[in-house]
From TrEMBL:
The lineage of its organism: Bacteria, Pseudomonadati, Pseudomonadota, Magnetococcia, Magnetococcales. It comes from the Bacteria. This is Porin. Gene3D superfamilies: Porin. InterPro entries: Porin_dom_sf. NCBIfam families: LbtU_sider_porin (NF033652).
């Protein structure tokens, strides 16, 4: 048993240890407060940012293509043993979207495409939408957009021929109604086309579409039909040209309407795409010519895609067949077959290979801008590295 003196010494040692512990606890508490204050600073700074910053989203994609074609001069192999290869940035696109409030949003798209005609950044789209379809089915979009005419869905790198003939990009007012998967849209715009002798510059182009998108048991369905009264305001207008001469888009005899129908079915990883485009009436021979008369261009696309995983990598296989009729003057092939495989090699990054075989119109088929078909064919292989964010 320790003596009283030893007990007193033990008590003194314990007292000193207690004081040391108190001091350490005080230092720890001070450090904890400093860390908490430091961590609170960024949050405080974030909270002080304008509220609109949290309502803006940014997305985009970059596609780089390595291509090889057995047709150097675009003459459908009329010149023997000619070929071409290149590496191009086929697309660099940035989309900015802003949810201004529950009833208004806006978006802007900037795009760069490296090709023979366009090698600069361009304002591709920009619009304001008023509406909230979760609370009310009616909405309004005004601005520069591709008007709702056609679907143009495809897993292929090459644009479907229905898009090449039917896509129409205009500054328009679009009114829409959406409820239970059904959608109806109507639109107005002042296009580039002008009737010959018409000095007015006014809104007289219009169109509309009806569609449904939803699930029917185990099958997904997206189908619709659309009409536009001035298809010459779309990509066809690039062929017609401008300048006021007979046959130019700004000296056309009359607006040419067009119809589009499409359906996309999905089930168990498979997607079946069908689309058909047709002008509602023929152009005048001075505008677009087919076999000595006015052309009534048509186009179609049929595609089967399959998405699966191979070794943990998302993989898409695709086969497509497209064609046109009376589109010789538009520089389009009469038929095209496409096969492709595309693999997601990293999160947001894919590597794919596409083979496209196109056939020209026959030598007996005649136009004006293109005197006659060649009966030739063209093969193009494209290796694409793409990134999305």
């Amino acid at each position: 048993m320790p003596s009283p003196e030893q007990l007193w010494q033990m008590i003194q040692r314990q007292q000193r240890q207690i004081e040391q512990l108190k001091q350490k606890l005080g230092e720890t508490d001070h450090a904890v407060r400093q860390v908490a204050e430091t961590q609170a600073e960024p949050a405080k700074g974030s909270a002080s940012l304008p509220d609109w910053v949290n309502r803006i989203s940014l997305s985009g994609k970059i596609e780089v293509d390595a291509t090889h074609s057995d047709d150097l001069n675009g003459d459908w192999n009329a010149t023997s043993n000619d070929s071409a290869s290149d590496i191009v940035v086929s697309t660099a696109e940035v989309d900015i979207a802003a949810q201004i409030n529950p009833w208004a949003n806006a978006h802007v798209t900037l795009k760069y495409e490296e090709d023979a005609d366009q090698t600069r950044i361009q304002f591709d789209a920009g619009s304001i939408t008023l509406g909230n379809t979760e609370k009310y089915p009616l909405w309004l979009t005004v601005g520069k957009e591709v008007v709702p005419f056609g679907n143009h869905s495809s897993a292929a790198f090459s644009d479907p021929l229905t898009l090449e003939l039917g896509e129409t990009d205009e500054t328009a007012a679009i009114v829409g109604w959406s409820l239970n998967g059904f959608t109806a849209q109507g639109y107005l715009f002042n296009g580039d086309s002008r009737k010959s002798g018409d000095s007015d510059n006014k809104i007289e182009s219009f169109g509309g579409m009806l569609g449904y998108a939803g699930q029917l048991g185990s099958v997904s369905l997206d189908a619709g039909v659309g009409y536009i009264n001035s298809i010459e305001d779309g990509k066809i207008g690039d062929t017609l040209g401008s300048g006021g001469a007979a046959g130019n888009v700004d000296a056309i005899s009359d607006h040419i309407g067009a119809w589009n129908v499409h359906a996309v079915l999905g089930m168990a990883g498979f997607s079946l795409i069908g689309e058909y485009f047709t002008a509602a009436e023929a152009f005048q021979p001075a505008e677009l010519t087919w076999m000595g008369r006015g052309a009534k261009p048509r186009a179609w696309n049929l595609e089967l895609d399959y998405e699966t995983e191979i070794g943990g990598y998302g993989t898409t296989f695709g086969l497509a067949y497209g064609g046109t009729a009376e589109a010789l003057d538009l520089g389009q092939p009469e038929a095209r077959w496409i096969a492709l495989v595309n693999v997601g090699i990293l999160d947001g990054v894919s590597l794919g290979l596409e083979w496209a075989h196109s056939e020209d119109y026959g030598t007996a088929d005649t136009g004006a801008r293109v005197a006659a078909g060649t009966g030739g064919d063209r093969d193009v292989a494209t290796l694409r590295l793409a990134a999305e964010f």
